[in-house]
Amino acid sequence: MDLIKIAQETFQTEAEALQTMAARLDRSFLDAIEVILATKGKLIVTGVGKSGLVGAKMAATFASTGTSSFFLHPTEALHGDLGMIGKEDTLLAISSSGESEELTKILPHIKRFDIPLIGLTGNADSSLAHYADVWIDISVEKEACPLNVAPTTSTTLTMALGDAMAVALMKQRGFKQEDFASFHPGGTLGKKLFVKIKDLMRTKSLPIIKSDTPLQEAIVAMSEGKLGTVLIIDEHDRFTALLSDGDLRRALMREDFSMEQPAITYATQHPKSYSNTELLASEALEIIENERIQLLPITDETKKIIGVLHIHDLVNAGIKSR
Description:
This protein has helices at 3-24, 27-38, 49-64, 74-78, 101-113, 127-131, 153-173, 177-183, 188-194, 197-200, 215-225, 245-251, 281-291, 311-316; strands at 43-47, 69-71, 90-94, 117-121, 134-137, 208-210, 229-233, 239-244, 268-269, 295-299, 305-310. The protein is α/β, with parallel strands linked by helices.
């Protein structure tokens, strides 16, 4: 049995169904989009079995792309959850046959609420198509299942239709990257667009020493600070130099090396620092990468240290450069 060929045939069957669906899109698709755009309440998606699973995914996609939406199971609706439907909502119901028992039982009640009903079904003569204010044909020539029974092609097509609706709604609403990120603050995009230096910088127990501190004491401070670095300030508490473990290794090679010398003798003078704590963490990571440093000291307008941003903290927080 050639399993690769079977898999390829599945892809081909489903791809052909998607192309057929794309070609037959008509006014009903536009009507559905207009109904959703005019909805002042929520778009409620419902369906049973595989259609229900697809519907749950569709509702999640709508909700994360600017269309307030949630999934409602027909059985739960029959047992009290109809109360979740408001007078300003729209219902989007999915059923390949259009005759799913649990779904058809709630359709008369939906009409009683006098709210718009969008039906996705492959049966033009079904109960769902009859009750729907807008009906979109989701029929397929055949399922990818060799028995032509298990929902395969039909579920792929329905999910793609949901994506097409979500994308069309995003375009109509002018939904931008920043809007998407606001719905996904914990995701990569959200972190890139919203997490700032002030959210991740360390401000406590910083390894700060005076410019006249002997190297021996500086090494102790470096060890206790656990940053591989000590920050050096002048007599006015202004950030002036930085001694890294790399600087320390290079100092060991110098003929004038002495543990009694001031640490600033071997430090990097006038190192890179930043004072705008509102800078995005992703932009700060770019600075760190471009400067090839691990630590970015953060100062106020008077050059006094208020925190540090370590590359490890950025990486651990899932921050990526733009």
